[in-house]
Write a structure and sequence with these properties.
Helices cover 38% and strands 24% of the residues. With 303 residues, it is of the alpha+beta class. α2 crosses α3 (32-44) and α5 (74-91) packs antiparallel against α6 (94-105). The longest helix has 20 residues, at 127-146.
Length: 303
Amino acid sequence: MKTERMLSILIYLLQKKKVSAEELAVKFEVSKRTVYRDMDALSSIGIPIISYLGKNGGFTLIDTYQLDKFTFNEEEKKFLLEGLSLKSELFDSHQLSILQRKIELLQENNEDYHPPITVLSSTLHRETIEEETKEKVKNILSVIEDGHKICISYVSQTANLSNRIIQPIKLNFMNGSWYLEAFCEEKEALRLFKLTRIRNMEVIKDKARSVYNHNNSYLANSDPNVEQITLLFSKSELGKLYDFFTEEEISILDDGRIKVAFHYDGNKNILPFIMMFGRQVKILSPQWLEDKYMNEIEFIYKS
């Protein structure tokens, strides 16, 4: 990414007296023209870069900036490293790993940094799907940075396959899955596309953008129909229940079974969650939910 490359170039300049455009181009695997554009961008935000022309020319920073202006204390360096480490794990970026190593070299003890927090798996997907999703994330971020459109083949939750031309805006991580927020040209509104359901992507090199209204998008949710749901669980499920419910919502009965009472939006389908517990759960209320649950069990049994 351009911003990460520019920060890397700045750190590289801090460690060198003078660096040629050729050296920077080779180091960061870009063209000399890109190096000159990056230097102009750094200068435009106030970084005091000095350019030398001629055969032995190159770039450097004024000494006072090197000594006084670009300094991180050790706590700030650790904060940067933690952020880079997490982002590198989420997106599997080689460039981020390089940048992380360069900031490690700025530490006073100059030792390898081992962050106190890590993300082994950011989603609930199998490892193969996780790697596939990371690749989609990387490609989509590149398209967003370039400002282009994407033609996607998308499978909806109801199994409808459609081809859409979308204008990607940003990636959202919600409920253990990655979603792409984008303007759908067919629907003429903002939509969320789950990355695992995007089966094919083709970049369209078109930077034209539509004017849209957030009120006419997926963000305009229907009015919630909140009511209390009460479930009864076997005592063996206590550990799992703390993954989903608060201490106030959980009551342990005298016989060891667990009663959970919580409020939930009736517009959302809670049956898949309840059925995840199999025979270890019983619906106490409301009655319509128990009836719906029994109908689903009967349908599964007959099929």
